[in-house]
Amino acid sequence: MAQSEQEILAGLADIVNEITGVAVADIASEKSFTDDLDIDSLSMVEVVMAAEEKFGVEIPDEEVKNLVTVGDAVSYIAKASA
Amino acid sequence: MSTNNKTRVVVTGLGATTPVGGTAVSTWSALLAGQSGVRTITDEWATDLPVNFAGVAAVDPAEVLDRVEARKLDRIAQFALVAAREAWADAGLTTVDPVRLGVSVATGIGGALTLLSSWDAMQKSGPRRVSPHTIPMLMPNSAAATVGIEFTARAGVHTPVAACASGAESMAQGLEMIRSGRADVVVVGGTEACVHPLPLAAFASMMALSRRNDDPASASRPWDKGRDGFVFAEGCAILILESFEHAQARGARMYAEVAGAGLTSDGSDSMVQPDPTGAGATRAIEAALKDAGASPDEVVHVNAHATSTPQGDIAEALAIRNALGSAIDGACITSTKSMTGHLLGAAGAVESIAVVKAIYERLVPPTINLDDPEDGLGLDIVTGSPRTLRDGSIVALNNSFGFGGHNVALAFRSI
Fold it and tell me: How many other CB atoms sit within 10 Å of the CB of residue B349?
Protein backbone atom coordinates (compact mmCIF):
# COMPACT_ATOMS: atom_id res chain seq x y z
CA MET A 1 0.00 0.00 0.00
CA ALA A 2 1.70 3.13 -1.22
CA GLN A 3 1.43 6.23 0.92
CA SER A 4 1.89 9.82 -0.10
CA GLU A 5 5.01 11.63 1.12
CA GLN A 6 2.67 13.89 3.07
CA GLU A 7 1.24 10.90 4.96
CA ILE A 8 4.69 9.51 5.60
CA LEU A 9 5.89 12.86 6.94
CA ALA A 10 2.92 13.05 9.31
CA GLY A 11 3.49 9.48 10.50
CA LEU A 12 7.21 10.07 10.97
CA ALA A 13 6.53 13.28 12.89
CA ASP A 14 4.33 11.32 15.32
CA ILE A 15 7.12 8.79 15.85
CA VAL A 16 9.76 11.46 16.46
CA ASN A 17 7.43 13.25 18.86
CA GLU A 18 6.69 10.05 20.77
CA ILE A 19 10.36 9.16 21.16
CA THR A 20 12.01 12.54 21.63
CA GLY A 21 9.26 14.92 22.70
CA VAL A 22 10.03 17.33 19.81
CA ALA A 23 6.79 19.12 18.88
CA VAL A 24 5.11 17.77 15.73
CA ALA A 25 4.93 21.31 14.34
CA ASP A 26 8.74 21.57 14.43
CA ILE A 27 9.28 18.43 12.40
CA ALA A 28 9.60 19.40 8.73
CA SER A 29 11.30 17.92 5.66
CA GLU A 30 14.31 20.23 5.70
CA LYS A 31 15.14 19.61 9.39
CA SER A 32 18.28 17.62 10.22
CA PHE A 33 17.69 14.89 12.81
CA THR A 34 20.90 15.65 14.70
CA ASP A 35 21.62 19.34 14.07
CA ASP A 36 18.07 20.75 14.16
CA LEU A 37 16.06 18.25 16.19
CA ASP A 38 18.89 17.28 18.59
CA ILE A 39 18.19 13.55 18.29
CA ASP A 40 21.02 11.41 19.65
CA SER A 41 22.27 8.25 17.95
CA LEU A 42 20.35 5.82 20.19
CA SER A 43 17.09 7.69 19.78
CA MET A 44 17.69 7.72 16.01
CA VAL A 45 17.89 3.92 16.11
CA GLU A 46 14.56 3.91 17.93
CA VAL A 47 13.02 6.21 15.31
CA VAL A 48 14.21 3.87 12.54
CA MET A 49 12.85 0.81 14.37
CA ALA A 50 9.47 2.45 14.88
CA ALA A 51 9.37 3.63 11.25
CA GLU A 52 10.08 0.10 10.01
CA GLU A 53 7.14 -1.17 12.06
CA LYS A 54 4.78 1.61 11.08
CA PHE A 55 5.47 1.70 7.35
CA GLY A 56 6.27 -1.97 6.82
CA VAL A 57 9.68 -1.30 5.30
CA GLU A 58 13.21 -2.32 6.11
CA ILE A 59 15.84 0.37 6.60
CA PRO A 60 19.25 -1.37 6.66
CA ASP A 61 21.72 -0.15 9.29
CA GLU A 62 24.12 1.08 6.59
CA GLU A 63 21.36 3.30 5.11
CA VAL A 64 20.64 5.10 8.38
CA LYS A 65 23.72 7.34 8.13
CA ASN A 66 22.41 8.66 4.80
CA LEU A 67 19.15 9.81 6.40
CA VAL A 68 20.36 13.26 7.43
CA THR A 69 17.12 15.18 7.19
CA VAL A 70 13.52 14.24 7.86
CA GLY A 71 12.96 14.60 4.11
CA ASP A 72 15.68 12.03 3.39
CA ALA A 73 13.83 9.53 5.59
CA VAL A 74 10.47 10.34 3.99
CA SER A 75 11.90 9.80 0.49
CA TYR A 76 13.56 6.54 1.48
CA ILE A 77 10.39 5.16 3.05
CA ALA A 78 8.26 6.28 0.08
CA LYS A 79 10.61 4.51 -2.35
CA ALA A 80 10.92 1.39 -0.20
CA SER A 81 7.18 1.01 0.24
CA ALA A 82 6.25 1.79 -3.37
CA MET B 1 29.04 17.76 69.22
CA SER B 2 32.06 16.14 67.69
CA THR B 3 34.05 13.67 69.71
CA ASN B 4 36.85 13.00 67.28
CA ASN B 5 38.85 14.78 64.61
CA LYS B 6 36.99 13.43 61.62
CA THR B 7 35.23 15.82 59.24
CA ARG B 8 31.62 16.11 60.37
CA VAL B 9 29.03 15.04 57.80
CA VAL B 10 25.39 16.06 58.07
CA VAL B 11 22.13 15.19 56.35
CA THR B 12 20.51 18.25 54.79
CA GLY B 13 17.97 16.82 52.33
CA LEU B 14 15.56 13.89 52.16
CA GLY B 15 13.65 12.34 49.26
CA ALA B 16 11.80 9.06 48.87
CA THR B 17 9.23 7.14 46.92
CA THR B 18 8.07 4.03 48.75
CA PRO B 19 5.11 1.68 49.15
CA VAL B 20 3.69 4.00 51.83
CA GLY B 21 4.20 7.36 50.09
CA GLY B 22 5.39 9.06 46.92
CA THR B 23 7.64 11.48 48.85
CA ALA B 24 9.81 11.41 51.96
CA VAL B 25 7.27 13.65 53.68
CA SER B 26 4.30 11.36 52.98
CA THR B 27 6.39 8.26 53.73
CA TRP B 28 7.30 9.60 57.17
CA SER B 29 3.66 10.51 57.97
CA ALA B 30 2.52 7.02 56.96
CA LEU B 31 5.21 5.38 59.11
CA LEU B 32 4.18 7.40 62.16
CA ALA B 33 0.55 6.44 61.48
CA GLY B 34 1.43 2.73 61.27
CA GLN B 35 0.16 2.33 57.71
CA SER B 36 1.07 -0.73 55.66
CA GLY B 37 2.04 -0.32 52.00
CA VAL B 38 1.79 -4.03 51.29
CA ARG B 39 -0.99 -5.11 48.94
CA THR B 40 -2.20 -7.80 46.57
CA ILE B 41 -0.77 -7.52 43.05
CA THR B 42 -3.84 -7.30 40.87
CA ASP B 43 -2.07 -7.87 37.53
CA GLU B 44 -3.03 -11.10 35.81
CA TRP B 45 0.56 -12.41 35.91
CA ALA B 46 0.45 -12.67 39.68
CA THR B 47 -2.56 -14.97 39.89
CA ASP B 48 -0.74 -18.29 39.85
CA LEU B 49 2.37 -17.30 41.78
CA PRO B 50 3.04 -18.82 45.21
CA VAL B 51 3.24 -15.23 46.51
CA ASN B 52 0.97 -12.65 44.93
CA PHE B 53 1.51 -9.54 47.06
CA ALA B 54 4.26 -6.98 47.54
CA GLY B 55 5.09 -3.51 48.75
CA VAL B 56 4.24 -1.78 45.49
CA ALA B 57 5.24 1.88 45.18
CA ALA B 58 2.41 4.19 46.26
CA VAL B 59 3.08 6.45 43.26
CA ASP B 60 4.18 5.25 39.82
CA PRO B 61 7.37 7.19 38.99
CA ALA B 62 6.51 7.14 35.27
CA GLU B 63 3.46 9.27 36.12
CA VAL B 64 5.61 11.83 37.96
CA LEU B 65 8.35 12.22 35.36
CA ASP B 66 8.05 13.72 31.91
CA ARG B 67 6.98 11.02 29.43
CA VAL B 68 10.04 11.29 27.17
CA GLU B 69 12.37 11.39 30.18
CA ALA B 70 10.77 8.30 31.73
CA ARG B 71 10.86 6.08 28.64
CA LYS B 72 14.67 5.97 28.52
CA LEU B 73 15.02 5.05 32.20
CA ASP B 74 14.59 1.73 33.95
CA ARG B 75 12.20 1.92 36.90
CA ILE B 76 15.20 1.95 39.32
CA ALA B 77 16.42 5.17 37.68
CA GLN B 78 12.90 6.62 37.49
CA PHE B 79 12.52 6.13 41.25
CA ALA B 80 15.97 7.59 41.87
CA LEU B 81 15.31 10.70 39.80
CA VAL B 82 12.01 11.38 41.55
CA ALA B 83 13.53 10.94 45.02
CA ALA B 84 16.74 12.82 44.18
CA ARG B 85 14.84 15.86 42.96
CA GLU B 86 12.82 15.91 46.18
CA ALA B 87 15.99 15.59 48.31
CA TRP B 88 17.83 18.27 46.34
CA ALA B 89 14.93 20.72 46.70
CA ASP B 90 14.52 19.80 50.38
CA ALA B 91 18.19 20.61 50.97
CA GLY B 92 17.68 24.02 49.37
CA LEU B 93 20.65 23.42 47.11
CA THR B 94 20.92 25.68 44.11
CA THR B 95 24.44 25.44 42.78
CA VAL B 96 27.21 23.16 44.00
CA ASP B 97 30.71 23.19 42.52
CA PRO B 98 30.42 20.13 40.21
CA VAL B 99 33.90 18.83 40.99
CA ARG B 100 32.97 18.81 44.71
CA LEU B 101 29.69 16.97 44.13
CA GLY B 102 29.49 13.16 44.22
CA VAL B 103 26.84 10.46 43.94
CA SER B 104 26.49 7.01 45.48
CA VAL B 105 23.18 5.34 44.64
CA ALA B 106 22.99 1.63 45.37
CA THR B 107 20.83 -1.19 44.09
CA GLY B 108 20.60 -4.86 44.96
CA ILE B 109 19.36 -6.19 41.65
CA GLY B 110 19.73 -3.38 39.10
CA GLY B 111 17.74 -2.93 35.89
CA ALA B 112 16.32 -6.43 35.77
CA LEU B 113 12.92 -5.28 34.51
CA THR B 114 14.61 -3.88 31.40
CA LEU B 115 16.62 -7.06 30.85
CA LEU B 116 13.46 -9.15 31.09
CA SER B 117 11.31 -6.94 28.86
CA SER B 118 14.05 -6.65 26.21
CA TRP B 119 14.41 -10.42 26.15
CA ASP B 120 10.63 -10.69 25.76
CA ALA B 121 10.78 -8.24 22.82
CA MET B 122 13.59 -10.19 21.18
CA GLN B 123 11.77 -13.52 21.57
CA LYS B 124 8.66 -11.98 20.03
CA SER B 125 10.09 -9.83 17.24
CA GLY B 126 13.75 -10.71 16.75
CA PRO B 127 17.08 -8.99 17.41
CA ARG B 128 16.32 -5.92 15.28
CA ARG B 129 13.55 -4.96 17.70
CA VAL B 130 15.77 -4.84 20.80
CA SER B 131 15.76 -1.26 22.07
CA PRO B 132 19.08 0.59 21.73
CA HIS B 133 18.48 1.86 25.27
CA THR B 134 18.55 -1.66 26.73
CA ILE B 135 22.14 -1.59 28.01
CA PRO B 136 22.17 1.92 29.51
CA MET B 137 18.86 1.07 31.19
CA LEU B 138 19.78 -2.31 32.66
CA MET B 139 23.22 -1.35 34.01
CA PRO B 140 23.08 -1.42 37.84
CA ASN B 141 24.83 1.98 37.83
CA SER B 142 22.11 3.53 35.64
CA ALA B 143 20.29 5.06 38.60
CA ALA B 144 23.44 6.63 40.03
CA ALA B 145 24.45 7.85 36.58
CA THR B 146 21.02 9.38 36.01
CA VAL B 147 21.29 11.28 39.28
CA GLY B 148 24.85 12.32 38.43
CA ILE B 149 23.77 13.71 35.07
CA GLU B 150 20.79 15.51 36.67
CA PHE B 151 23.00 17.49 39.05
CA THR B 152 26.26 17.55 37.00
CA ALA B 153 28.22 15.59 39.61
CA ARG B 154 31.94 15.36 38.82
CA ALA B 155 33.53 14.09 42.04
CA GLY B 156 32.64 10.48 41.24
CA VAL B 157 29.42 8.54 40.68
CA HIS B 158 29.20 5.12 42.34
CA THR B 159 26.91 2.13 42.83
CA PRO B 160 27.55 -0.12 45.81
CA VAL B 161 26.08 -3.61 45.37
CA ALA B 162 25.70 -5.68 48.53
CA ALA B 163 22.24 -7.23 48.28
CA CYS B 164 20.01 -5.89 51.07
CA ALA B 165 22.87 -3.89 52.65
CA SER B 166 23.45 -1.91 49.42
CA GLY B 167 21.57 1.24 50.48
CA ALA B 168 23.49 1.38 53.75
CA GLU B 169 26.78 0.92 51.90
CA SER B 170 25.98 3.99 49.81
CA MET B 171 25.53 5.98 53.03
CA ALA B 172 28.92 4.73 54.24
CA GLN B 173 30.53 5.54 50.91
CA GLY B 174 29.11 9.07 50.89
CA LEU B 175 30.41 9.59 54.42
CA GLU B 176 33.85 8.43 53.34
CA MET B 177 33.89 10.60 50.20
CA ILE B 178 33.35 13.72 52.31
CA ARG B 179 35.70 12.69 55.13
CA SER B 180 38.50 11.92 52.68
CA GLY B 181 38.14 15.35 51.12
CA ARG B 182 36.94 14.13 47.73
CA ALA B 183 33.56 15.92 47.88
CA ASP B 184 31.62 18.53 49.87
CA VAL B 185 28.20 17.20 48.93
CA VAL B 186 27.22 13.61 48.05
CA VAL B 187 23.80 12.46 46.87
CA VAL B 188 23.39 9.00 48.41
CA GLY B 189 20.68 6.38 48.58
CA GLY B 190 19.32 3.14 47.23
CA THR B 191 16.75 2.09 44.67
CA GLU B 192 15.01 -1.16 43.78
CA ALA B 193 12.32 -2.04 41.25
CA CYS B 194 11.75 -5.69 40.68
CA VAL B 195 8.10 -6.45 41.24
CA HIS B 196 7.85 -8.97 38.41
CA PRO B 197 6.90 -12.67 38.31
CA LEU B 198 10.46 -13.99 37.93
CA PRO B 199 12.07 -12.43 41.04
CA LEU B 200 8.91 -13.14 43.05
CA ALA B 201 9.00 -16.79 41.99
CA ALA B 202 12.75 -16.99 42.65
CA PHE B 203 12.58 -15.52 46.16
CA ALA B 204 9.58 -17.75 46.85
CA SER B 205 11.61 -20.78 45.73
CA MET B 206 14.18 -19.86 48.36
CA MET B 207 11.36 -20.02 50.92
CA ALA B 208 12.35 -16.47 51.82
CA LEU B 209 8.98 -14.77 51.30
CA SER B 210 5.90 -14.66 53.50
CA ARG B 211 3.03 -16.71 52.04
CA ARG B 212 0.29 -14.73 53.76
CA ASN B 213 -1.59 -14.18 50.48
CA ASP B 214 -4.94 -13.84 52.25
CA ASP B 215 -3.82 -10.91 54.41
CA PRO B 216 -0.92 -9.01 52.79
CA ALA B 217 -0.97 -6.00 55.14
CA SER B 218 -0.18 -8.24 58.10
CA ALA B 219 2.45 -10.36 56.29
CA SER B 220 5.48 -8.32 57.39
CA ARG B 221 5.56 -8.96 61.14
CA PRO B 222 9.11 -8.70 62.50
CA TRP B 223 9.75 -10.58 65.77
CA ASP B 224 6.17 -11.90 65.85
CA LYS B 225 5.80 -15.65 66.44
CA GLY B 226 3.62 -15.85 63.33
CA ARG B 227 6.21 -14.39 60.93
CA ASP B 228 6.97 -16.53 57.90
CA GLY B 229 9.33 -14.57 55.67
CA PHE B 230 9.92 -11.12 54.27
CA VAL B 231 7.69 -9.08 51.96
CA PHE B 232 9.16 -8.10 48.60
CA ALA B 233 8.96 -4.34 47.99
CA GLU B 234 10.12 -1.60 45.63
CA GLY B 235 11.02 2.07 45.84
CA CYS B 236 13.86 4.43 46.59
CA ALA B 237 15.26 6.84 49.15
CA ILE B 238 17.84 9.56 48.58
CA LEU B 239 19.66 11.70 51.15
CA ILE B 240 21.87 14.73 50.68
CA LEU B 241 25.06 14.37 52.71
CA GLU B 242 27.15 17.46 53.18
CA SER B 243 30.19 18.48 55.15
CA PHE B 244 29.19 20.42 58.25
CA GLU B 245 31.26 23.36 57.03
CA HIS B 246 29.60 23.45 53.63
CA ALA B 247 26.12 23.19 55.15
CA GLN B 248 26.85 25.81 57.78
CA ALA B 249 28.29 28.25 55.25
CA ARG B 250 25.07 28.25 53.27
CA GLY B 251 22.82 28.28 56.34
CA ALA B 252 21.31 24.88 55.56
CA ARG B 253 18.94 23.05 57.86
CA MET B 254 20.70 20.00 59.32
CA TYR B 255 18.53 17.00 60.19
CA ALA B 256 21.24 14.93 61.87
CA GLU B 257 24.89 14.02 61.66
CA VAL B 258 26.06 10.82 59.97
CA ALA B 259 28.49 10.09 62.74
CA GLY B 260 29.85 6.67 61.86
CA ALA B 261 29.64 3.55 59.75
CA GLY B 262 30.61 -0.03 60.52
CA LEU B 263 31.03 -2.58 57.73
CA THR B 264 31.80 -6.24 58.30
CA SER B 265 31.29 -9.57 56.56
CA ASP B 266 30.28 -12.90 58.05
CA GLY B 267 32.82 -15.11 56.29
CA SER B 268 30.54 -18.00 57.12
CA ASP B 269 29.76 -21.08 55.05
CA SER B 270 26.34 -19.97 53.78
CA MET B 271 25.44 -17.48 51.08
CA VAL B 272 21.98 -16.77 52.44
CA GLN B 273 21.55 -18.07 55.99
CA PRO B 274 22.21 -15.52 58.71
CA ASP B 275 24.89 -16.37 61.22
CA PRO B 276 22.77 -17.46 64.22
CA THR B 277 25.26 -15.89 66.64
CA GLY B 278 24.91 -12.50 64.90
CA ALA B 279 28.65 -12.01 65.42
CA GLY B 280 29.23 -10.13 62.16
CA ALA B 281 26.29 -7.83 62.91
CA THR B 282 27.57 -7.21 66.44
CA ARG B 283 30.99 -6.25 65.09
CA ALA B 284 29.34 -3.88 62.59
CA ILE B 285 27.40 -2.08 65.34
CA GLU B 286 30.50 -1.85 67.53
CA ALA B 287 32.51 -0.51 64.59
CA ALA B 288 29.87 2.12 63.78
CA LEU B 289 29.84 3.35 67.38
CA LYS B 290 33.64 3.45 67.49
CA ASP B 291 33.76 5.33 64.18
CA ALA B 292 31.24 7.81 65.61
CA GLY B 293 33.21 8.19 68.84
CA ALA B 294 30.00 7.22 70.66
CA SER B 295 29.41 4.97 73.61
CA PRO B 296 26.51 2.47 73.78
CA ASP B 297 24.99 4.60 76.58
CA GLU B 298 24.26 7.37 74.07
CA VAL B 299 22.14 5.10 71.85
CA VAL B 300 18.43 5.81 72.31
CA HIS B 301 17.05 4.10 69.20
CA VAL B 302 17.78 1.36 66.66
CA ASN B 303 15.97 0.99 63.35
CA ALA B 304 16.59 -2.72 62.88
CA HIS B 305 17.08 -4.67 59.68
CA ALA B 306 14.36 -7.09 60.98
CA THR B 307 12.82 -8.36 57.75
CA SER B 308 10.31 -10.77 59.36
CA THR B 309 12.24 -13.96 58.62
CA PRO B 310 12.27 -16.73 61.25
CA GLN B 311 16.06 -16.83 61.83
CA GLY B 312 17.19 -13.34 60.83
CA ASP B 313 15.10 -11.41 63.35
CA ILE B 314 16.36 -13.55 66.23
CA ALA B 315 20.02 -13.33 65.21
CA GLU B 316 19.77 -9.55 64.94
CA ALA B 317 18.11 -9.22 68.35
CA LEU B 318 21.05 -11.11 69.81
CA ALA B 319 23.52 -8.93 67.89
CA ILE B 320 21.94 -5.70 69.16
CA ARG B 321 21.93 -6.96 72.76
CA ASN B 322 25.55 -8.07 72.54
CA ALA B 323 26.71 -4.80 70.97
CA LEU B 324 24.90 -2.49 73.39
CA GLY B 325 25.31 -4.59 76.53
CA SER B 326 23.61 -3.08 79.54
CA ALA B 327 22.86 0.07 77.51
CA ILE B 328 20.16 -1.93 75.71
CA ASP B 329 17.70 -0.71 78.36
CA GLY B 330 18.03 2.85 77.09
CA ALA B 331 17.30 2.09 73.45
CA CYS B 332 13.92 1.63 71.79
CA ILE B 333 13.84 -0.55 68.68
CA THR B 334 11.60 -0.54 65.62
CA SER B 335 11.30 -2.20 62.23
CA THR B 336 9.73 0.07 59.64
CA LYS B 337 9.82 -2.90 57.25
CA SER B 338 6.65 -4.01 59.06
CA MET B 339 4.97 -1.25 57.02
CA THR B 340 7.08 -0.81 53.88
CA GLY B 341 8.04 -4.43 53.28
CA HIS B 342 11.65 -5.09 52.32
CA LEU B 343 13.01 -2.73 49.66
CA LEU B 344 16.20 -4.84 49.27
CA GLY B 345 18.94 -2.50 48.00
CA ALA B 346 16.90 0.55 48.91
CA ALA B 347 16.07 -0.59 52.45
CA GLY B 348 19.14 0.90 54.14
CA ALA B 349 18.42 4.29 52.60
CA VAL B 350 14.69 4.27 53.44
CA GLU B 351 15.50 3.32 57.02
CA SER B 352 18.26 5.92 57.25
CA ILE B 353 15.60 8.51 56.47
CA ALA B 354 13.41 7.01 59.20
CA VAL B 355 16.29 7.30 61.70
CA VAL B 356 17.22 10.82 60.63
CA LYS B 357 13.60 11.94 60.97
CA ALA B 358 13.29 10.14 64.31
CA ILE B 359 16.26 12.12 65.62
CA TYR B 360 15.08 15.41 64.13
CA GLU B 361 11.48 15.09 65.33
CA ARG B 362 12.27 12.98 68.42
CA LEU B 363 9.66 10.45 67.35
CA VAL B 364 10.09 6.74 66.56
CA PRO B 365 7.53 5.03 64.30
CA PRO B 366 5.92 1.85 65.66
CA THR B 367 6.44 -1.71 64.48
CA ILE B 368 3.09 -3.00 63.26
CA ASN B 369 1.76 -6.56 63.28
CA LEU B 370 3.75 -7.49 66.40
CA ASP B 371 0.83 -9.24 68.10
CA ASP B 372 2.69 -12.09 69.78
CA PRO B 373 6.41 -11.32 70.25
CA GLU B 374 9.01 -14.07 70.36
CA ASP B 375 10.01 -15.04 73.88
CA GLY B 376 13.25 -13.76 75.31
CA LEU B 377 13.95 -11.04 72.73
CA GLY B 378 15.19 -8.65 75.37
CA LEU B 379 14.36 -5.62 73.21
CA ASP B 380 12.14 -2.63 73.95
CA ILE B 381 10.21 -2.67 70.66
CA VAL B 382 7.95 0.30 69.86
CA THR B 383 4.40 -0.81 69.06
CA GLY B 384 1.00 0.85 68.84
CA SER B 385 1.89 4.52 68.57
CA PRO B 386 5.11 6.50 68.01
CA ARG B 387 7.58 6.77 70.90
CA THR B 388 8.99 10.14 71.96
CA LEU B 389 12.78 10.39 72.26
CA ARG B 390 14.42 12.43 74.98
CA ASP B 391 15.90 15.91 74.55
CA GLY B 392 19.63 16.56 74.41
CA SER B 393 22.37 14.91 72.38
CA ILE B 394 21.32 11.46 71.21
CA VAL B 395 22.62 8.68 68.96
CA ALA B 396 20.53 6.30 66.87
CA LEU B 397 21.50 3.31 64.72
CA ASN B 398 20.36 1.69 61.50
CA ASN B 399 21.24 -1.91 60.68
CA SER B 400 21.32 -3.52 57.23
CA PHE B 401 22.38 -7.04 56.31
CA GLY B 402 22.55 -8.71 52.91
CA PHE B 403 22.77 -12.13 51.28
CA GLY B 404 26.45 -12.88 50.94
CA GLY B 405 27.10 -12.02 54.58
CA HIS B 406 27.29 -8.22 54.30
CA ASN B 407 26.68 -6.28 57.53
CA VAL B 408 26.41 -2.51 57.71
CA ALA B 409 25.54 -0.44 60.77
CA LEU B 410 25.20 3.33 60.62
CA ALA B 411 25.35 5.68 63.59
CA PHE B 412 23.55 9.03 63.50
CA ARG B 413 23.81 11.83 66.07
CA SER B 414 21.57 14.78 66.77
CA ILE B 415 22.97 18.16 65.73
Answer: 34
Residues 6 or more apart whose Cβ sits within 8 Å of residue B347: B164, B167, B168, B190, B305, B337, B400
Would you say residue B4 has pLDDT above 90?
no
Q: How far apart are CA A70 and CA A39, in angstroms?
A: 11
Say which CATH topology domain B260-413 has.
Peroxisomal Thiolase; Chain A, domain 1 (3.40.47)
Q: Which residue of B has its CA nearest to A49?
A: B129
Which of B69, B198, B361 minimizes the C-alpha distance to A21?
B69
Q: For B91-118, what is the mean pLDDT? A: 96
Q: How far is A3 from chain B (nearest CA, A)?
A: 24
| Segments making up each domain of chain B, as ranges | 9-249, 260-413
Q: What is the ipTM of this complex?
A: 0.89
- Which residues of A fall within a CB distance of 8 Å from B66? 21
Tell how strand B380-381 and strand B332-334 pair up. Answer: parallel
Give the residue from B347, B166, B315, B313 showing the smallest Cα distance to B229: B313
Q: Which residues of B60-81 are buried (b: 16+ CB within 10 A; e: fewer)?
A: bbeebbeeeebbbbbbbbbbbb
A45–B132 C-beta distance less than 8 A: yes
Angle formed at CA B135 by CA B132 and CA B139, multiple of 5 degrees: 155
Residue pLDDT, tens place only, A23-76: 999 999 999 999 999 999 999 999 999 999 999 999 999 999 999 999 999 999
Q: Is B131 in contact with B186 (CB distance < 8 Å)? A: no
Residues paired with B399 in a beta bridge: B409
Cα(B234)–Cα(B246) distance, integer angstroms: 33
pTM, to two decimals: 0.96
Fold of B9-249: Peroxisomal Thiolase; Chain A, domain 1 (3.40.47)
Q: Which domains does chain A have, with CATH numbers?
A: 5-80 (1.10.1200.10)
Cβ of B67 within 8 Å of Cβ of A21? The answer is: yes
List of residues 6+ apart from B414 with CB closer than 8 A: B256, B257, B359, B360, B392, B393, B394, B395
pLDDT, position A1: 55
* Integer Cα distance of B222 and B236 in angstroms: 21
At B199, which amino acid appears? P
- Contacts with A46 from chain B: Cβ below 8 Å: 131-133
What's chain B's length in residues? Answer: 415
Chain A contacts of B71, Cβ < 8 Å? 19
Say how many C-beta atoms besides its own lie within 10 A of residue B225's C-beta: 12
Transcribe A23-55 into DSSP letters.
-GGG--TT-BTTTTT---HHHHHHHHHHHHHHH
**Torsion angle defined by CA atoms of residues B354, B394, B187 and B266, in that order, rounded to the nearest 10 degrees:** -80
